[in-house]
Amino acid sequence: MSGKGEMKRTVCSLILTALLCSCPLVHGAAQEPLFSVVAKANLTTAARLFLNPNASDPYARAQSVSFTDFFGYGAEIRYHIPGTTLAVGVSADYIVSSDTRTITAAAQRPVPAEDGYRVIPVELTGYFRIPIIEGRFGVYMGGGLGVYFGEREYSVAGLSAPTTERHPGFGIHVLGGVQYQVTEWFALSAEMKFRDAQFEATNSFAVPSVRYRDILVTLPQKPFESSIQTDGMVLQLGAAYSF
After folding, report:
1. Which tens digits make up the pLDDT trace of 28-86?
2. Which end of the chain is more exposed for a tag (fewer CB within 10 A), N or C?
3. pTM for this one?
4. Distance (Å, rounded) from C-alpha 151 to C-alpha 177?
5. Integer Cα distance of 209 and 66 in angstroms
6. What are the tens digits of pLDDT across the range 123-176?
7. Residue 213: is its pLDDT beyond 90?
8. How far apart are CA 85 and CA 142, in angstroms?
9. pLDDT at 6
10. Domains of the chain listed by start with CATH number
11. What is the DSSP pairing of strand 86-104 with strand 110-130?
12. Quick check: 124 and 144 in contact, CB under 8 A?
């Protein structure tokens, strides 16, 4: 985690430097399109689902399920501030991740359990174009705030435990990327983002048991809480149409 924090601090410092360098540069920026609509595909490298986030025992509180390399997609609208190399964007992504494992049921028999989550990050981002490359290629950095709406998806032996309570989380993100201007109105981009996305959810089974093959699996009747944290980086590809 210390390495990730150091990287975030470094990126934030570079963002401030880019802001100071880019604000005075107004060469022709007012003639550019004011808005861009961006379609995005992304890959998140890591996330963890904590099974007992409010437990008093530190060992139980640290128990988690890990997820790696899962995909998502999203869209964004950006406003380019006239006369500057700055832009502001509002985006929403849709990310789903799941994993199948086994748990021990009656008579020490293994039973399949599927665990995962879905999350919709809604983020406000400030972008700063860095004037270090001429021509069709561009470099940018940015950062901002986000709110994360999500729910846990959990099932045992094919029976789902619906989410009964959702508690969205808030966090920050930083990013850096490159863009290739194909035409005046169309561009492609690739970027790396670090986001602190987390939220909490409560799930509950509606019935006390379920039959799996020749055994009866007893299900917990108390609602159970969980906390989901995305602590990996996000690799993202985008296509932008400007108008």
Report:
1. 334 679 999 999 999 999 999 999 999 999 999 999 999 999 999 999 999 999 989 99
2. N
3. 0.84
4. 30
5. 27
6. 999 999 998 777 889 999 999 999 999 999 999 999 999 999 999 999 999 999
7. no
8. 12
9. 57
10. 2-242 (2.40.160.20)
11. antiparallel
12. yes
Quote the pLDDT of residue 12: 53
Q: Under 8 Å CB-to-CB from 22, ≥6 apart: which residues?
A: 84, 85, 86, 128, 129, 130, 131
13's tokens: 């410092």
How many CA atoms lie less than 13 Å away from 214 in the CB half-sphere? 2
